[in-house]
Amino acid sequence: MKSKITLKKIAKEFDVSISTVSKALKDSHEISEEVRERIKAFAKYYNYKPNSLAVNLRNQKTKTIGVIIPQIVHHFFTKVISGIEHIANENGYNVMICLSNESYEKEVLNMDMLESGIVDGIIVSVAKETEEKEDYKHFKQLIDNGLPLVLFDREIPEINCNKVIVDDFGGGFLATKHLMNISCKRIAIITTPDHVMVGKIRKEGYIQALTENNFPIQEELIIKVNEKYDITNQIQKLFDQANPPDGIFAVNEIYAATVIKIAQKRNLKIPDEIAIMGFTDGLISEYTTPSLSAVDQHGYTMGEKAMELLLDEINYQDSDYKYNTTIIETDLKLRESTKKQIISY
Fold first, then answer.
1. Domains of the chain by range and CATH?
2. 204-230 tens-digit pLDDT
3. CB–CB of 331/167 below 8 Å?
């Protein structure tokens, strides 16, 4: 039995755009007769049939877009949603929010529901379980069916679509270099398992900063947190070492706040005995005692850019569209958790 054929697969076969295939199948004289006949013969052989329901739904815009986020508790995602809504509302669009809870299955169910014709495009931050499974069929199917897609924060190199990402490497580098500049000699990182790309890349920035400044890479100072288990118990291993760190870079706000809690229970003076740097400048960072220095991801800007890219594709999806990857630069918000005398390396 022949596999289901799509416009995108035909376009790939002939190394032309989807628009060219569509015009050839409509017998448009904009396409040469030879190319038209070859494409039509190929489509006939594979029994290509346009999805009339999908075509009708695409032509009748709903003026609604879907957003799938992995968690609602992180202030970063609320900032992103605010940025998305700002641009969406300015352009007469409504926003429908769905939550994957870091679940692959829930993410797939959400996308199936949104793809049914109730939205004009989808913005997604990929669930950690999806990254771990490395199963991206639902994204590829969405693109094959012609629904505009933007990935933000957590991106998948194999998926060809618009993307908005943070300069995670640069953020990890900046955070680590700042800890060096305030005299930290033994700098640890609390990160995610390597299948979570943002944590992996932030760790690479940390390693680059150490290497450039002749700091040794010490595996006992690299903690990869498995969130299926108690986070506090895993992080406490750093404090139980015979020679514990005097500086810690945590790749998210929750990990950094946990470090503060552990340090305070052990009566360590922050930042004099241990300096702490987080990632994502949210409400936790601002209102933790002491307040937390952090890498600012600029979530609101990321949301605005994601919506702009989605609108761009919605409005021009019948042309020879080229996808873009936008990188949002990071900077540091310095607060009490790292307020020590700054030196330079």
1. 7-50 (1.10.260), 63-166+299-329 (3.40.50.2300), 168-296+332-338 (3.40.50.2300)
2. 999 999 999 999 999 999 999 998 899
3. no
Helices (H) and strands (E) in the chain, counts: 14, 12
Share of the chain residues as helix, strand and coil, in percent rounded to the nearest 5: 45, 15, 40
- How far is the first Cα of the chain from the last one, in angstroms, to the nearest whole number? 65
Tell me the residue type at 293. Answer: S
Its pTM stands at 0.77
Q: What is the largest CA-CA distance in the chain?
A: 80
Residue 250, strand partner residues: 190
Least confident of 213-222, 266-275, 319-328, 331-340: 319-328
Residue linked to tokens 């590829």: 140
Distance (Å, rounded) from C-alpha 223 to C-alpha 58? 47
Task: Report which of 188, 200, 277, 202 is spatially closest to residue 235, judged by C-alpha positions.
Answer: 188
CB 161 within 8 Å of CB 104: no
Residue 344: Cβ within 10 Å count? 6
Question: How far is 280 from 125, CA to CA, in rounded Å?
Answer: 15
Provide CB contacts within 8 A for 289, sequence distance 6+: 260
165 contacts 153 by C-beta, under 8 angstroms: yes
Residue 29: exposed, middle, or buried by beta-carbon count in 10 A (0-12, 13-18, 19+)? exposed
Helix axis angle for 18-25 and 33-45, nearest 10°, is 90
104-133 confidence digits (pLDDT tens): 999 999 999 998 878 999 999 999 999 999
What Cα–Cα distance (Å) separates residue 189 from each residue in 136, 256, 333? 29, 10, 18
C-alpha span between 106 and 130 (Å, rounded): 10
Crossing angle (nearest 10°) for helices 299-316 and 75-90? 40
Distance CA 159, CA 140 (A): 7
What rounded mean pLDDT belongs to the chain? 90
Prior bond to 290 cis, omega within 30? yes
